[in-house]
Design brief:
With 467 residues, the protein is mostly helical. The protein has helices spanning 15-26, 29-41, 45-73, 77-87, 96-127, 136-147, 150-170, 176-199, 204-212, 221-234, 241-247, 255-283, 294-304, 309-342, 347-368, 389-416, 419-426, 433-456, 459-466. It binds tryptophan.
């Protein structure tokens, strides 16, 4: 099977194409929408530092492992894991990584698409001049008015789902490669413009301090789990998205180098987004812990107060939609590839089915912000007292399913694959690169996942009390 040179679904045209696609998958709402709001909810500095630590020690080695497994298996994650387990004479159990990933992909995309729909709606609002001269209260009201309208939110969710599935149906390698190449740099430039505006506000220093000065008393077990979960989420790890992109990667490309580029670009975008947003939060007296609405409340104020703001705001939200789009595609690709491989479906039929299921699921999130905002299914449990369906979906996927998936990937790649196989596939040229990777993927990454779960569940305090 090591003979398989290409996936039946095709191959990237070059190394750059893979970097672009993987960056497209990684950079998305997670960086610009989610990172700032969870950093805000968890008190900033210490959370951010812990998140960066997770990226380096857990994210990077697991990303290399995922790309490696994908390229070796050259199929959908389910079949890749089955075949690699067989090849290494391991139990078929390992397919669970693929199945869990498909499920996580559906669940994540269901809410991801709703938030991307918000961004779509904000493109129109921006161009209509709705942000001109806007202040904190008005911006809040504008957002509240919009998300209260289940029809509007549902409509934009539907539009986003359709554009996603059209690209998936055509095959991810057509069009996507080229689009990402221009849009990512444009997004970066716009973020720099926003950071520039943030620098001119009174709250700039307060904002930076909030983001970068760590106060470890604020780092609770919950915050640590959230930071770790987000490291997986933002790098698209733990569910097979990067694995399947790896399966389209030509044989001779260096996995380590490409991983560094992708993780670096992803982290840069998240930090810039934070630097653009928190100064505004403090300048305009907004809540740093506003939650999912944070960027939709803050950024309009910035755009409403800078020259050319109408145009720039429109452009920004368009780019945000594109960033979300290139991420969404990777969330559903594992499921679609599996339907094509195992159910003999055409890509278009597979995309249609996967799309309809996700679209329907998405309404749980659409309604979480309006007619079901009081539905709190787990209100009996302290942690989830205030959690809506959207909050629960986000928690289950990002904080539990992805870290578990990543844990299993690390164990498989580090312990169950022979060194000969992983060494041959990774071909790390950097001196000591391979042993360092092996150490991280065997001990540090899985150990850290378990440690965070232990701290979070309070097992730690419990154990301390006993001894
Ligand atoms: N990484 C993307 C973001 O930050 C979201 C995403 C795309 C994702 N594919 C994924 C998250 C796979 C987890 C798993 O917006």
């Amino acid at each position: 099977m090591a003979e398989r040179k290409q996936s039946i679904h095709g191959q990237w045209s070059s190394r750059l194409a893979f970097i672009m696609a993987a960056t497209g998958s990684a950079v998305g709402l997670g960086n610009i929408w989610k990172f700032p709001y969870i950093a805000g909810e968890n008190g900033g500095g210490a959370f951010v530092l812990f998140y960066l630590l997770c990226i380096v020690l857990i994210g990077v080695p697991i990303m290399m492992a995922e790309v490696m497994l994908g390229r070796r298996g050259r199929q959908s994650p389910i079949n890749t894991m089955r075949e690699l387990a067989h090849e290494e004479s391991r139990h078929g159990f390992w397919q669970i990584v693929g199945w869990g990933g498909v499920l996580a992909g559906f669940l994540i995309l269901s809410y991801y698409s709703v938030i991307a729909g918000w961004a779509l709606a904000y493109v129109l609002k921006a161009f209509s001049g709705a942000f001109t001269g806007i202040g904190g209260e008005q911006s809040k009201a504008l957002f509240g008015g919009f998300t209260n309208d289940a029809y509007a939110v549902g409509f934009w969710h539907t539009v986003f789902m359709i554009i996603t599935m059209v690209v998936v149906a055509r095959g991810v390698r057509h069009g996507l490669e080229k689009a990402v190449r221009y849009l990512m740099p444009a997004l970066l430039i716009l973020l720099l413009v926003l950071v520039g505006y943030a620098m001119s506000t009174d709250g700039f220093v307060t904002g930076l301090k909030f983001l970068f000065a760590p106060d470890f008393s604020k780092l609770s077990g919950d915050a640590m789990l959230e930071a770790m979960g987000h490291a997986f989420f933002t790098l698209s790890l733990g569910m097979g998205a990067i694995m399947i992109y790896g399966s389209y990667l030509p044989k001779n490309v260096s996995i380590a180098k490409t991983t560094f580029y992708v993780a670096g670009a992803d982290t840069l975008v998240a930090l810039l987004a934070g630097m653009a947003i928190f100064p505004l939060v403090f300048t305009y007296g907004l809540e740093s812990s506003a939650g999912p609405s944070l960027i939709f409340q803050t950024l309009p104020i910035a755009f409403g107060n800078i020259p050319g703001g109408v145009f720039l705001a429109g452009l920004f939200f368009i780019l945000l939609v594109f960033a979300a789009w290139t991420s969404s595609i990777s969330l559903i690709e594992p499921a679609v590839a599996w339907l094509v491989e195992n159910r003999g479906m055409k890509r278009i039929t597979a995309s249609l089915w996967a799309g309809v299921v996700t679209w329907l699921l998405g309404f749980a999130t659409v309604f979480s912000f309006n007619i079901w905002s009081d539905v709190k299914p787990l209100s009996g449990l302290a942690t989830f007292e205030k959690s809506t369906l959207f909050d629960l979906l986000d928690y289950l996927t990002a904080n539990i399913m992805l870290p578990l998936g990543g844990f299993l990937i690390a164990i498989f790649a580090g312990w169950l694959m022979t060194r000969k196989s992983s060494k041959e596939e990774l071909k790390i040229k950097f001196p000591y690169g391979y042993p360092v990777w092996l150490f991280l993927v065997r001990f540090i990454a899985p150990g850290a996942v378990i440690a965070v779960f232990i701290v979070k569940t309070g097992l730690w305090t419990w154990a301390k009390n006993i001894f």
